[in-house]
Design goal:
Bact_Cytoskel_RodZ; DNA binding; elongated; RodZ-like_C; single chain; alpha+beta; Cytoskeleton protein RodZ; 9 strands; transmembrane
C-alpha cells in the first residue's frame, strides 16, 4: 500500500471516529424514546402518567434541554421518566453529564419579596381611623403655632407719662408685665405615655388576587402560573428560602422534591403528598 493510500485511510478513520463521538445516541433522549416505543406507549400516555406536558416529553427525547427549567429540573425529569419505563436512571444521568452542558434556570424574584406579612392576631387600623389621627395632629399643630405667634402677645405701653407738679418728681417704677406663657397642647399619648403615631398602612391585596407562600427545607425547584398562564414564580431555591407569589387563581404548580417544600395558601396549607410522583408534584390550587 502506498503512502497516499495510507494517509487517506487514516483520515477516513478519524472522520468516522468524530462522527461516532458526536452521534446523539450518547445522550439519554434516544434511549428513553426507544424504551417508550418498545412498551407501546405514546407521548400522551407518558405525559399523563408523569404529569408533564407532551411538549416537555418530546423535548427530553430530542435532547432539547434549553426549553426545560434548568439542570435540576432536567435531572429529576430523566430520573422520573426512567423509573416509569423500568430503566435504571444512573447510566442515563451519566450520559447526560458527559454529553452536554445544561442551562441554568433563571430565578425571578417576585415584586413583593421581603414585604412584611401581618402576624396572627395583629390588629391593623383602618384607613379612615389613620386619617382622623393625622387630622387631629395637624389641628393641634395649628393651635400651638397660633398660641406662640408674636402677633397674639399683649402689647405694652412704651413709656409712662410723668405727672405735672410744682416740684418735679421721679416717675414711679411700674413692675414689668410679663406676657402669659404660651400653652402648647401635646398630642394625645397612649397608656404607656408614648406619643401616638399612626401605624403604616397595611398592604392590601385586591379581592381577585391571592397569595401563595413557599418555605423550603432543602434544595428544590418550583414553577407557578396564574389563571392567565403567566409565570409568577420560577426557579431553583435552597434550604431556608421563603418566596411569595401573588396572582389570580387558579394556580398551576410544578414542584420538584415536593417533600422539601411547604405551600401556604392564605390560612390554609396545601398538601403536596397526594399530587407527588417520584418527588415531583403537579397540581392546581383553586
Amino acid at each position: 500500500m502506498s503512502q497516499t493510500e495510507t494517509e487517506q485511510s487514516d483520515d477516513a478513520v478519524a472522520d468516522l471516529s468524530a462522527t461516532v463521538a458526536l452521534t446523539p445516541a450518547e445522550l439519554p433522549g434516544r434511549r428513553l424514546r426507544e424504551a417508550r416505543e418498545a412498551r407501546g406507549l405514546s407521548l400522551a400516555d407518558a405525559a399523563n402518567a408523569l404529569k408533564f406536558s407532551p411538549r416537555q416529553i418530546a423535548a427530553l427525547e430530542a435532547d432539547d434541554f434549553h426549553g426545560l427549567q434548568g439542570a435540576t429540573f432536567v435531572r429529576g425529569f430523566i430520573r422520573s421518566y426512567a423509573r416509569f419505563l423500568k430503566q435504571a436512571p444512573e447510566p442515563l444521568l451519566a450520559m447526560l453529564d458527559a454529553g452536554t452542558a445544561l442551562p441554568t434556570a433563571e430565578v425571578r424574584a417576585p415584586e413583593d419579596t421581603g414585604a412584611a406579612m401581618p402576624q396572627p392576631g395583629e390588629r391593623r387600623l383602618s384607613a379612615w381611623v389613620a386619617g382622623a389621627i393625622v387630622l387631629v395632629v395637624i389641628a393641634a399643630s395649628l393651635i400651638a403655632w397660633h398660641l406662640v405667634s408674636p402677633e397674639s402677645a399683649p402689647s405694652l405701653p412704651r413709656e409712662l407719662p410723668l405727672a405735672k407738679t410744682e416740684r418735679p418728681a421721679q416717675p414711679a417704677e411700674k413692675p414689668v408685665v410679663q406676657p402669659p406663657a404660651p400653652r402648647i397642647e401635646a398630642a394625645p399619648a397612649d397608656a404607656a405615655g408614648n406619643q401616638s403615631v399612626a401605624p403604616p398602612a397595611a398592604t392590601v391585596i385586591p379581592p381577585d388576587m391571592r397569595q401563595l407562600i413557599l418555605t423550603f427545607s432543602d434544595k428544590s425547584w418550583v414553577e407557578i402560573k396564574d389563571s392567565s398562564q403567566r409565570v409568577i414564580l420560577s426557579g431553583e431555591f435552597s434550604a431556608g428560602d421563603r418566596q411569595v407569589a401573588n396572582g389570580k387563581p387558579p394556580f398551576q404548580l410544578w414542584v420538584g422534591r415536593a417533600s422539601a417544600v411547604r405551600v401556604q395558601d392564605g390560612d390554609r396549607e396545601v398538601d403536596l403528598k397526594p399530587h407527588a410522583r417520584d418527588e415531583v408534584a403537579r397540581l392546581t390550587v383553586d
